[in-house]
Design brief:
single chain, 323 residues, alpha/beta, Arc Repressor Mutant, subunit A, D-Maltodextrin-Binding Protein, domain 2, 3 domains, 5-stranded mixed sheet, 10 helices, 35% helix
């Protein structure tokens, strides 16, 4: 007998839910089954693997070493079956109930999220949209193959297909009330001031900081934050200077208590795109979805001229991308 014939395939999504949630009650809600049904599935999975999978630690549960190794394959298996059974020759957004999962930073959600939600509500009222934060780099952990895309830096994954393009510029921000209206930030004063800068957990050597060091500029950094949108509020009411994206500052509005100054050193635009796994290449629903993301990204940043119809942004010229 083929070993696959002995497998209850209903246990695969149960395994994924239990390993992701690490809690029987939450797994039951995720699977839309009773708690007793989820407990029964866990018992059968324990017999199948000869392992506890979930063990109590304190008030919660942790994964056994075997379960840790099963978590990513289980997630990929569920996503793969969903893609297989969901693939059709056509896609009707007006009736689809599909959930599209996008991984992006707080910046990406703030800048593109509302416009994307409005587009999808208008064209696909029954579809669902899930935003997730970036927990590990796309090349690790196996999650990239299980989501519909990652909105990330343009240069991040040159071997993967991408759709859409958005370029934002950096500006420096100072307190609106405590500085002169005609103040100009130069290199000398930049070195003397205290700074609030964005950082990413476990990735402190961000590209813009390296560029400053290349120009011999070592800022006096007194505050760091993983929240891009918090930077203006951390600067307001102080003598500090912050570094933030111009489009994000515009989206936050006039109540931030800061005003923008041009940075006194050359800063390349912060370019973003939607990266997606090649397993979505022939997914009609995904083609529609990435077109929606690309349309949202095509809106030029405040103060930037719109590109001529049909012309790619200058940074895209010569860059062959699928999608």
């Amino acid at each position: 007998m083929d070993p696959l014939d002995r497998i209850d395939w209903n246990l695969v999504p149960a395994l994924d839910a239990l390993l992701q949630e690490r809690n029987v009650s939450r797994a039951a809600r995720r699977l839309s089954v009773s708690q007793s049904a989820a407990s029964g599935a866990l018992a059968r999975l324990r017999r199948h693997f000869g392992d506890d999978l979930l063990v109590r630690q304190g008030a919660g549960y942790v994964l056994t070493p075997l379960a840790q190794g099963l978590a990513t394959p289980a997630q990929q298996a569920v996503a793969g079956v969903g893609d297989l059974l969901g693939s059709t020759r056509s896609f009707d957004p007006a009736t689809s109930t599909r959930e599209f999962v996008v991984v992006t930073s707080e910046y990406g959600q703030t800048l593109f999220g509302a416009d994307l939600v409005r587009r999808m509500r208008a064209a696909a009222p029954y579809a669902r949209l899930a935003f997730r934060g970036l927990s590990t780099p796309p090349g690790t952990g196996g999650w990239f193959a299980t989501v519909d895309g990652w909105i990330g830096p343009r240069e991040a994954m040159p071997d993967k297909p991408s759709s859409g393009f958005y370029a934002d510029r950096w500006v420096c921000v100072v307190d609106r009330e405590s500085t002169a209206a005609d103040e100009v930030l130069d290199l000398s004063s930049a070195r003397e001031r205290s700074w609030v800068i964005p950082t990413v957990a476990k990735h402190r050597d961000v590209p813009w900081r390296k560029r400053l060091l290349d120009h011999g500029i070592d800022l006096n950094i007194v505050v760091t934050t993983e929240s891009f949108s918090a930077i203006p509020y951390l600067v307001a009411g102080t003598d500090q200077v912050g570094l933030v994206q111009a489009s994000l500052l515009d989206r936050l509005g006039a109540d931030t208590g800061v005003r923008a100054l041009e940075c006194p050193w050359p800063m390349p635009p912060l370019a973003f795109t939607l990266w997606w796994h090649e397993n979505r290449e022939n997914d009609h629903a995904h083609r529609w979805f990435r077109d929606q993301v690309a349309a949202v990204m095509a809106v030029p940043p405040p103060g930037d001229p719109a590109p001529a119809p049909g012309s790619p942004p200058p940074q895209q010229v010569g860059a062959a991308r699928r999608g």
